[in-house]
Structures
1.
Amino acid sequence: MIKLCYPFRPESYEHMTIVGSFNGILLLVLGYHFYDHMILYNPFSGKFKKVPDPVVQSRTNVYGFGYGTTADDLKIVRLSRYIKTIEVFSLKTWSWSKPSNLTKDIASIGIDPSTFVNGFLYWIAGKMILVLDMKKMVFSEIDSPNKRMINLGTCNSQLCMRCANNNANKYELWVMKEQGSGKSWSMSCLFKLDFGLAYRHVLDIRWSSCILDDEKLRVLKSSMQLIIYEMFKDSYKEVNTLTSFRLVGGKQAVAYVESLVSPWDICSI
C-alpha cells in the first residue's frame, strides 16, 4: 500500500499511476487536471524525490521507466498523445530531452504505462505492440497472435500478455520466448477468473487485475480485499488489506523488492 505524506496527498490528485520499479524504488505519476507530477518513492522507507516537470505540460500522457545497456542510466519516457511529443528524462544527468530521431505515431497507444523487459519498453497500441529499444532509442512494432489484448506484464522475466478468449470469462496467457520477436509467441495457459463471484464482479476484475512476474495475477475483489491468483496452478488466496482503498487510475500493482535504497541514489546502485 502506498501512503504518501506532505506535499503529495492522494486527495490532491485525480489519479495516480505506478509506472514501474527498480531497486525498491517506484516511479509514481500523480495527475491533476492537465498536469502530471512524478516522484521516485521508496514504500519501505517512505522517502521520495520529486522529478522535475517537463517544460511543456500536457494531458493524456503515457509513461515508461527503464534502461538500455547499464542499470545506472535509468530513463523516464513520456509519450504525449495530445501534443504528439516524445520526451526522455535521464536520471543520470537529471535533465529532459527531446531526441530528434525518436519519432512515432502514438495516437493509438493505450493509457497503461509500459512494461520493461531486458532493455525494451512495450505498450499496447491498438492491435499491435509498440516497442522502444532503450539502448538505440528506436521504435518498432510487433504483431500479436491474439488481437483481444487486455494487458502486458512479465512472466519469469519474459514479456507476456493476457488476452480475452472466445469462451466467456476465460483468458489466455501468451509469453514471448525471444526478445522482440513477434514470431516467438507461445500460449502458456488458459484460465478463468470468477472465484464464485457474481457476473458483474467477473466483468470488473477483467480490468482490475495486474500481471505479477512470478506467474501470478493480482485481482481487486473489493476495496478491502485482494486476490493473488496463480495462473499455471489455477489456485488463489485472498489477502485482506489493513485499510480501504480506491481505484485512482493507471496500473494499480507492481512487484518490487524492499530495500533501503534512497531515491537520491537510485542510479548509483
Note: The mean pLDDT is 81.
2.
Amino acid sequence: MTSSTTEVSKKLTPTNGLLQYRPRVYISRQLPQRALDLLLGRCNVSFWDSPDPAPRTELLVNVPGCDVLVCMPSDKIDREVLNAAGKTLKIVATMSGDLAHIETAECSRRNIRVIPLAAAPIVEAITQMVVALFRLAASRWIGKTSCNMNTVLQAKDIIQALKADHIFCLELSNRTVGIFGLGSVGLSVGKAFKELGMTKILYTDVEPNADDVTINAEFVSRDELLTRSDVICVCWNMKVDGKSIMSFERDSFKRMKSSAILLDATKRFSADFTDMYEALRNGEIAAAGLDVREYDIIPNRHPLDGLDNCFFLPYRECYKWDGRRKLATDLVRSILISLQELEFERKQKSSIVSKPERIDHLLLEPVAT
C-alpha cells in the first residue's frame, strides 16, 4: 500500500474575534489519534500517513509555510529542511528526548523553538521496552512460567505484570545484571530489574555514579561486567565528544557467559553485527534484544533476522503502547502552550494587550486510558 501525506483541518468559529488564524502543522509520521485530535482543536494538520518514516523528499515538499514541524528521531532536521520551511516556521517538536538529529544552533539563530519529549516519560517508556525485550529473550532460559507471555507483553505496565509471574521472578533471584552507563535510563532499568528479584547489579561508566547506592549497584570495569553478568543492558551509546569509546565485537562476545542475554536501550547501538550473528549462532551468548532497526543500523535481510534468539523491537511497535499515546499527547500539549505564548508575545509587540483565547480546556483535559 502506498503512503501519502494526509491533510486534516477543522473549521473553527472565532471566539471574540481572536482565532482568525489557525497555525499549520506538519507531522512526519502517524501520531496516536488522541494527540492528533488535540492538535486539530487549534491547528490545521497534515501528516505522512504511515507508521514508517516520511521520505526526505516528502518532508522537504510539505514543510514550506508550516508554523510547526513535528518530527521523529529518524528525521534529520538540518539547514536544508529549515530553509525549505521558510520564515513561517516557529516550532520544531520531536518525538524524542535526544536532539542530536536537529541542528539546534541553527534553530536558535532563526528564533525557532525546539521542543523535545519530557525526560521522565521517555525514561519510563524505555525501561518498559527493555523489560519487554528481556522477557522475550529470557524465553531461552525459562520454559514454563506462571503467566502467559503475551498477556504480560500487552499489559500497560509490563514490570508490574512480570512481578506477578512468581516462577519467572524466582528464576531471576540468583542472576546478575550488568549495566553500561548508569545515567537516568540505567538507574531506571536497574531499579526495574531489582524489583523483578535480581539481587546483584553491576555497572560501568566513565566514572562512578554517586546515585548507585539507590539500587545498590557495584561499579566495575568493562571486562569484569562482561564476564560476570547474566544480563547485559547497554543504556549509553558509549560515545564521548562524538567518538565511540567502546563497541561490542568478537572479543566482547567471547568474554560473556554462554547463557548471557544482551539488551540494547540506546537505539544507536555500537556493535559489529556480523560478530554478534556468529556469537548468537554458535551459542557464545544465549540471546539478544535490540531496538535499533528504526535507524537502519542493521540492514534489511541481515542474517540476524533469521535467528530465533535475536529479538527486534522497532520504534514503530511503540505505537501499540499506551505509553506512546501519553508521550505524544504530552508533546502536543507543549506545542499548544508554546503557540499560545508566541501569540501573546506577537500581540504584545503589536501593542495589543488583550490576552489570546485560553486553551485550558485542551491542555488540562485528562488523557483517556
Note: Residues 322-349 form the longest helix (28 residues).
3.
Amino acid sequence: MRNQLLLQLPFVLILIFIVSSKLTHAKSTIEPCTSSDSCPSLLSYVLPWDSKLSEIAYRFQVNVFDIMAANSINVTTSSVGNQIFGARSQLKVPISCPCVDGIRRVLLSYMVQAADSLDLISEGYGRLVSGEQLRTLNGISPKNPLTSGQSILVQLPCTCFNNSNNGVTSVFMSYVVQSGESLSNIGVEFGTTVMELVNVNGLDQPRVDPGDILAIPISACSSANLNWYNESLIVPNGSYALTASNCIKCICRPSTLNLQCFPSGIVNACSHLQCKGSNIFIGDVSINRTATGCNISTCVYRGHNGGKIFRGLVNSSHSHCSDDDYYSTVSPVASPNNPTVPYISLPPSQSPFPNPTIGTGANGPSSIQNPNSAPNKYGRWLTQAPYYSLWVVLCFFL
C-alpha cells in the first residue's frame, strides 16, 4: 500500500499544483464611493504583444495624446499613434475613474473577435481584469457562450482617495504585480514606501502575489492654487498634460512638483497666447536688471473657455537676482519673435481642486479594501484557498 502511494505521489503533487493555481484569488483594492464625480487616475499596462499607440488608445477608449502625455512622449504630428511598442513594454494609461454602483471602477465595451477567449481578452488588457470577472460580469456560460461580434463589458480597477496621499496631491495608479516582485522593489520603482503601499491598500501584511492589483500613489502637480478660470488640472510627476485644445502644454517636474505651462507648439491655430501690455507669451519671463536688483514680468496661463485662452501678467521686484533655483535655465518653448528667457515655476497646491482632469473591481473573487472603508473579513480566507485545496486533495488520495 505504501509503495502504491509513493508511486502516485508525483501525480498527486501535479494535481495539487493545478488545483491550487486555479483557486488562487488575485486581490485588488476596492474604494467605496457615494458621489457621482470622477477623478483622474492611471492604469499600469504591460503590453501582451507588440502594439501601436493608436491600438492601445482604442483598446482603453482614451486619447492618443493623453497616453503620450502620461508617459512623457514628445508629440510629433507625423508620428502620432504610429509608434510601435514591443511586448512587455510598460505604459501608463490615463483614465477617468467614476463611481459606479457605489464602487470606483471603469467600465469599457469590447467587441469580441473570432479567435477570442475570456483568457485572451484578459491578457489583452494586461490582466487588469480576469477571465472570471469577465465571465461573471457578462453572464458567460455554456448556455450563453462568448461569440464573435458580441459586445461585452470590461471592468477595470481604479481609485481616487480624493487625489491626496498624506496631504500631498497624488494620482493613484492600478498596478498588476508581476512574478518575482515585492512591495519593496515596487516602492523603489514608483517612489513610495512599503508602509505607504500597505496603508493605501489596507494590507494585513507586507506581502503580495503575482496577479494582485495594487493602488500606487504617484505624487502630482495641481492647478488648485493658480487661479485658473473654469479649469482644474492634476498632472502626475514626470509627465505633462495638453489642454486648451492642445494649444497649451503643462509639465510637472518630479524634483519640485511645480506646474509649468507654455505653448505646446503642436497646434498652429492658437490665439490669445501673448499677455496684454507686454511682448511676452505664456511661459515666458522678462527680466530687467536694475541697480538695486531686477524687475520680473511673467506671462502665466490662467485657463480657457471655448476657444479663448486666459493669461495674466505677473510683475515682481527682487533685490537679489543671482542664478538660484527660483529660475529655470531653459524655456521649454520660445514664443514667436521672442527670445528664449529664464522660466519661473509656479508652486502647486497641497490639495486638489474638485473634479480635476488629468493630463490625462467589485466582481472579482477577492479584494483588499482601503483602510477608510469597511474591513474585508473574507480577504484572508480567500488568499489561503490554495492551502485548503491541498488538504482536500491529500485526504482524497490518502
Note: The radius of gyration is 25 Å.
